[in-house]
Amino acid sequence: MDHKLPDHITGPDDLQLLELEVNRVLELSREQALRRSKTAKAPVLELSPQLLEFLDLGPGSAIPGIAELEELKAWLEQARGSAPVVHLGLPGMPAEKLKTEIVHWFRQEINPLMLLVFEYNRGLAGGFVIRLGSQIYDYSFKHALLTNNQAMVKVMKNV
Amino acid sequence: MNFSYYIVFGIIVILAGLNLISLYWVTSLQKRLKEAATARAAEASKNPANEAHTVLVAEELLRLENVAKGDIQNALVQVSHNFQDDLANTSKKINTKVEEMADKVVQDELTKYQGTFDELRQAAIETLSRVQAAIEEQSRKKAEDVSVLVEAEKKKVIEKFEQKLGDIVAGYLVEVLGSNVDLGAQRGYLFATLEAHKDELKKAVIDGP
After folding, report:
1. What are the CA-CA distances from residue B145 to residues A154, B137, B154 (Å)?
2. CA-CA 20 to 30 A from B151: which of A46, A89, A128, A148?
3. Contact B170, A145 (CB under 8 A)
4. What is the Cα–Cα distance from B43 to B38, expressed in whole angstroms?
């Protein structure tokens, strides 16, 4: 089954939470299956909106079967191990909408499994910094100002 | 110079030799005259008849002896005079010759000295020229080095100043902008920059950390 990470699952923490929930649901489903065979009382399963969106299910939809959940768990484990993680430094914390837009862009243009960690850095003044493993791509205003200080001096001389 | 002494000494020896020969000749001449007179006297004594004649012969002998003595004295005086003249002439010539030789030797020595002096002077001038050239070269290099150092230092100071100035201005802008960041307003810049560096980012993801 082909899965796709929803845009609100941004970073490794979100993915791990999803994985934990899938595990929990899987365990409960197994327990439910076991109880159904012995007693009539079974635990009630409630899925989070994130998991519902991930599974592309509406509220009140039937919970996937144990096999499907196991397959989902394996996929999530594999995604967690192989998904590239990008740290995005911004001068302020972005709104949820902007965050999902950025995640969407990365998954659309760079890698569909891309995970983003948003970091707050007031000193950037503007723009952003991307850290990918040991590589850093600094597109901040601060960096631009400091690296182009000659241009600034030139401008000041002309004033 | 030693050679002239040898010449003078040789001439003196030769003159002394000539003098000795003259004396020997005079002495031997006197001896022969005396022997001749004695022989004649002996011959006269062998003939008593001629006693008167013998007395005469004795007088003659005495006269002859006196004459011979006078001649000998004259000859000795003459020889002495001649010798003195010769000696004076020779001495004069020797002096002249010695002076000439001394002049020549002094002239030669002076010429040699002059030549040596010229060579030394030339060598000194060349050495001095080389030293001067080396000093000039050294000075030029030092001046260049100093000029380069001054230029580098100047550049460094200017760069430092501009860096500081840039830092101050950038710091000011960061301080001012940092507290008034509107990420919504930067949305366009953010996505435009991401688009502009899309390939770079994609490559970085593929290559791995």
Report:
1. 30, 12, 14
2. A148
3. yes
4. 9
Question: How does DSSP classify residue A122?
Answer: G
CA B207 to CA A138: how far, in whole Å? 19
Residues of B in contact with A137 (CB under 8 A): 197, 200-201, 204
| pLDDT tens track for B161-209 | 877 776 777 677 766 665 556 667 778 888 999 999 999 888 888 887 6
Contact B174 A142 (CB under 8 A): yes
The burial of A126, by beta-carbon neighbours within 10 Å (0-12 exposed, 13-18 middle, 19 or more buried), is given as: buried
Closest alpha carbon within chain B to A121: B178
Q: For residue A155, what are its two tokens?
A: 């401008």
Which tokens belong to B49? 């008849």
Is B166 in Cβ contact with A150 (below 8 Å)?
yes
Cβ separation A123–B166 shorter than 8 A: no
Burial label for A143, CB within 10 Å (0-12, 13-18, 19+), is: middle
Whether residues A109 and B198 touch (CB distance < 8 A) is answered with yes
In angstroms, the separation between the Cα of residue A23 and the nearest Cα of chain B is: 29
Beta bridge partners of A135: A132
Q: How many CA atoms lie within 13 Å of B38's alpha carbon, on the beta-carbon side?
A: 6
Taking alpha carbons only, the member of B91, B38, B85 closest to residue B64 is B38
Query: Which ipTM did the prediction report?
Result: 0.80
CB-nearest partner of B190 from A114, A128, A133: A128
Model pTM score? 0.51
| DSSP 8-state class, residue A59 | T
- Nearest Cα of chain B lies from the Cα of A3 at a distance, in angstroms, of 21
Q: Is A145 helix (H, G, I), strand (E, B) or coil?
A: helix
* Strand A127-132 with A115-120, pairing: unpaired
Q: Helix, strand, or coil here: A128? A: strand
Q: pLDDT for B84-139, tens place per residue?
A: 888 888 888 888 888 888 888 888 888 888 888 899 989 999 999 999 999 999 99
Residue B105 one-letter amino acid: V
Residue A68 and residue A87: Cα distance in Å, rounded? 32
